[in-house]
């Protein structure tokens, strides 16, 4: 079953913490939410100490009153299970529920997310509060859905308590069966690490030089992910049994968690918390950082999980914690831009974080829609405008799907292995960003596609081009699937350091790129990392194929290639900047109806531009629109008519201006902006700073 949000309208909501405010304010708050045009309110996800003030004593009265009022004002309620914030009595009485750092030091009460998923006591107490809540609220007429916990693996995503070591052993027994198989998979003969009893096996602990067994390190992350998933499953099962009418989701995308599996196993759809200002606070490198536009890349990952999804927390003010993460205030227009950025990528429900800025606590500088003074302001007015626009445009947008012919392929194994293994880890980010940026700036919408054992040829064949930048761990079956994709007419791009590890993270003794070698039509003959001064061997492209004399960098890693296929052509050779001079660096191999391009380096913006030309990748709106690079284009389309009288599904072209200056676009046909009703005639048009449009072209 598809794990997507199914909504007939695009709607807005807000996160609210009744426990932070005098009860006398609630009514006014809910009334004004409705006046602004908000339809959803999320509550209760940090309220455990209120709902179970003493062990086994339950009191839902505060939330009963808040939910009743919210419902009276016509708001749909999303309830959070409160397990991200265990009460003080709990961790004090049961310190075994606390998470522990790799060095053995325990987290303590005083913030949040300090628990471990594997503590049997924590599971027992979590199950009980979730059960009580679910039974208590199951028939509440205002409640529509549940959020499990809050942001699994946010802030902390490593777990080394005694309970985790014990659970890891059980996980390994289930995976490997025998210690012999475990010793073989982890290569423990190296440095006498061989285990002779299960009790000797642990998650990473303090070892000299911070250099644990790399195969253990990889399994450890798979285990962390499975730990979240089994803990979440326990909660989901309870909620579903008690409240079958309600949907179940969770929010966020965090480390060491296979959110695709989590969603497929138990959720109705995934939700994401979008704070685009982090893109400005921590910009990606390079000449033209994407800044807040980079969140479109993350939203593409969210979309790979649920094609239509919920934004459970949309940034609505300047961010800052008690003493850190300082962010400027969103400029006039930016909240609207970011809201439509989410919608342009597939969100059909957007919930703002939060109604009013807290006056105390860790997040008193994480600003919500209202400041402490609680007066209407330019941010609330902006949200009111969005709600008004969606009142006329929401139904036309809801349920439509983002369209893309290109996908960047990723997988969790390589992401987790690459976190530890510097011989390939960082290249993934560099190459993905280079491809994403250039596709973005040339208005070619792209998807993220997560490869796993369930991925089918049908899923791959939807795309004209797949870019799998550096799949170091490569299963034989995945290589076969990629081969079928290319034979059927696909274009596959692969970069250096591919295919040389198996699933355990052990290196293969066959020539690189291992099982991908026949498809790529090359073997790797020699390789080197960048020099200590940061320089990497340069190469030039074949003039016949590219019409350029420019020199390109291998950008961190360089492999010389031997051509092994009669159908392969060399597209680029090393230049005299290194001893690799004259050897192939870039090779294209034709097989069946398609081709594979193998690059023995790390992709740069400049090389990506050349490859995009060679692949003839063009914008789907090239005929209708001429856009400057600063504008993002996304297309959401319905596959069938949604309104009477329509002949085919509506196609909506979202245009997003991330710049603080106005930009000129050119239309080659007339169009209407669904959001404002504005008509555009053929010719030039000005987009204001931070503009967002949803254009429908005249037939
Ligand atoms: C999210 C979290 C919220 C709040 C927000 C702003 O990650 O889910 O509870 O902390 O960030 O900091």
What does this structure look like?
The chain is of the alpha/beta class and 699 residues long. It contains 20 helices and 28 strands. The strands form 5 sheets. The chain has a 9-stranded mixed sheet, with helices on both faces. It has an 8-stranded parallel sheet with strand order 5-4-3-2-1-8-7-6. α5 (120-137) runs parallel beside α8 (214-242) and α8 (214-242) packs across α14. The radius of gyration is 26 Å and the shape is globular. Bound molecules: beta-D-galactopyranose. The site of beta-D-galactopyranose (GAL) has 8 residues, from loops. Beta-D-galactopyranose binds at residues 150-151, 154, 273, 313, 353, 363, 366.
Helix percentage: 25-40%
Instruction: Return Rg in Å.
Output: 26 Å
Name every ligand kind in the structure.
beta-D-galactopyranose
Strand order within the widest beta sheet: 11-10-12-13-20-19-18-15-16
What's the total count of β strands?
Answer: 28
Spans where pLDDT lies below 50 across 5 or more residues: none
Note the total helix count: 20
Q: What is the percentage of strand-forming residues?
A: 15-25%
Structural class: alpha/beta
- Gross geometry: globular
How would you characterize the largest beta sheet?
9 strands, mixed
Termini separation (Å)?
A: 35 Å
Mean of all residue-level pLDDT scores: 97
Write the layout of secondary structure elements.
Elements: E1 11-15, H1 23-36, E2 40-43, H2 48-51, H3 61-72, E3 76-80, H4 88-93, H5 120-137, E4 143-147, H6 162-176, H7 179-186, H8 214-242, E5 247-249, H9 259-266, E6 271-274, H10 277-281, H11 295-305, E7 309-315, H12 334-344, E8 347-353, H13 378-397, E9 401-402, E10 406-410, H14 412-420, H15 425-441, E11 446-450, H16 457-461, E12 465-468, H17 476-487, E13 491-494, H18 517-520, E14 522-529, E15 538-541, H19 543-546, E16 551-553, E17 557-563, E18 568-574, E19 584-591, E20 594-599, H20 605-614, E21 625-626, E22 631-637, E23 651-657, E24 663-667, E25 671-673, E26 679-680, E27 683-687, E28 692-697
Parallel strand pairs: 1-2, 1-8, 2-3, 3-4, 4-5, 6-7, 7-8, 10-11, 10-12, 12-13, 13-20
Antiparallel strand pairs: 9-22, 14-17, 15-16, 15-18, 18-19, 19-20, 21-24, 22-23, 23-28, 24-27, 25-26, 25-28
Helix pairs in contact: 5-8, 8-9, 8-14, 15-20
Bound molecules: beta-D-galactopyranose (GAL).
The site of beta-D-galactopyranose has 8 residues, from loops.
């Amino acid at each position: 079953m598809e794990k997507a949000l199914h909504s007939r309208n695009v709607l807005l909501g807000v996160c609210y913490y009744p426990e932070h405010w005098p009860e006398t304010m609630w009514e006014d708050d809910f009334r004004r939410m409705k006046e602004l045009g908000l339809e959803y309110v999320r509550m209760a996800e940090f309220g455990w100490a209120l709902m179970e003030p003493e062990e086994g004593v339950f009191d839902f009265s505060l939330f009963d009153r808040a939910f009743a009022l919210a419902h009276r004002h016509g708001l749909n309620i999303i309830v959070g299970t409160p397990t991200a914030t265990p009460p003080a009595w709990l961790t004090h009485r049961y310190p075994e529920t606390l998470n522990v750092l790799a060095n053995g030091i325990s987290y303590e009460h005083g913030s949040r997310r300090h628990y471990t998923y594997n503590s049997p006591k924590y599971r027992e107490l979590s199950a009980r509060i979730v059960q009580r809540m679910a039974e208590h609220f199951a028939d509440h007429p205002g409640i529509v859905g549940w959020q499990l916990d809050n942001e699994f693996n946010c802030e902390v995503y490593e777990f080394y308590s005694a309970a985790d070591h014990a659970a890891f052993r059980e996980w390994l027994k289930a995976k490997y069966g025998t210690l012999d198989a475990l010793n073989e998979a982890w290569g423990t003969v190296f440095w006498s690490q061989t285990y002779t009893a299960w009790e000797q096996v642990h998650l990473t602990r303090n070892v000299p030089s911070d250099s644990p067994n790399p195969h253990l390190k990889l399994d450890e992350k798979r285990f962390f992910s499975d730990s979240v998933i089994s803990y979440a499953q326990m909660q989901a099962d309870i909620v579903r049994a008690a409240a079958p009418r309600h949907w179940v989701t969770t929010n966020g995308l965090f480390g060491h968690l296979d959110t695709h599996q989590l969603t497929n196993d138990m959720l109705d759809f995934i939700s994401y918390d979008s704070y685009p200002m982090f893109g400005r606070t921590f910009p990606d490198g390079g000449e033209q950082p994407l800044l807040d536009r980079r969140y479109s890349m993350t939203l593409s990952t969210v979309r790979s999980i649920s094609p239509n999804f919920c934004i459970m927390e949309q940034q609505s003010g300047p961010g800052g914690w008690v003493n850190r993460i300082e962010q400027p205030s969103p400029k006039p227009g930016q909240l609207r831009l970011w809201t439509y950025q989410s919608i342009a990528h597939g969100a059909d429900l957007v919930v703002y974080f939060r109604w009013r800025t807290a006056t105390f606590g860790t997040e008193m500088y994480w600003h919500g829609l209202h400041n402490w003074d609680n007066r209407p302001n330019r941010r609330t007015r902006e949200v009111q405008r969005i709600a008004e626009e969606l009142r006329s445009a929401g139904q036309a947008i809801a349920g439509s799907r983002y369209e893309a012919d290109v996908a960047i392929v990723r997988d969790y194994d390589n992401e987790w292995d690459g976190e530890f293994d510097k011989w390939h880890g960082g290249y993934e980010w560099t190459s993905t960003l280079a491809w994403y940026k250039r596709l973005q700036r040339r208005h070619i919408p792209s998807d993220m596609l997560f490869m796993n054992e369930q991925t089918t040829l049908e899923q791959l064949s939807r795309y004209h081009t797949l870019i799998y930048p550096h799949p170091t761990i490569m299963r034989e079956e995945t290589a076969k699937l990629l081969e079928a994709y290319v034979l059927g007419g696909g274009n596959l791009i692969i970069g250096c350091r591919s295919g040389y590890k198996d699933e355990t993270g052990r290196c293969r003794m066959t020539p690189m790129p291992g099982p991908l070698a026949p498809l790529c039509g090359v073997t790797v003959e020699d390789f080197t990392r960048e020099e200590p001064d940061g320089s990497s061997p340069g190469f030039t492209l074949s003039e016949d194929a590219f019409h350029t004399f420019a020199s390109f960098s291998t950008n961190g890693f360089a492999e010389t290639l031997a051509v092994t296929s009669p159908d392969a052509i060399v597209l680029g050779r090393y230049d005299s900047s290194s001893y690799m001079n004259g050897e192939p660096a870039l090779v294209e191999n034709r097989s069946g109806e398609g081709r594979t391009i193998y690059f023995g380096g790390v992709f740069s913006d400049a090389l990506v531009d050349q490859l995009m030309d060679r692949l003839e990748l063009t914008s789907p709106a090239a005929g209708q629109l001429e856009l400057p690079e600063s504008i993002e284009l996304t297309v959401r389309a319905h596959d069938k008519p949604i309104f009477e009288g329509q002949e085919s599904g509506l196609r909506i072209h979202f245009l997003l201006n991330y710049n603080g200056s106005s930009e000129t676009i050119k239309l080659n046909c007339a169009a209407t902006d669904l959001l404002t009703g504005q008509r555009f005639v053929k010719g030039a048009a000005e987009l204001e700073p931070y503009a967002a449009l949803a254009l429908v072209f005249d037939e």
